[in-house]
Amino acid sequence: MSLQPPSGDSPGIRISDADRERAAARLHQALSEGRITVSELEERLAVVYAARYGADLAPPLADLPGGAIDVTVPPPPLSTPAGPPMVLRTGMGGLRRSGQWAVPARLRVQSGMGSVYLDFCDTQLPHPVVEVELELGAGSARLLVPDDATADVDGLVAAMGHVRSKVPSAPVPGRPHFRIYGRSGMGSVTVRRRYRFAGRFF
Question: Domain DUF1707: where (predicted)?
Answer without folding.
Answer: 13-65
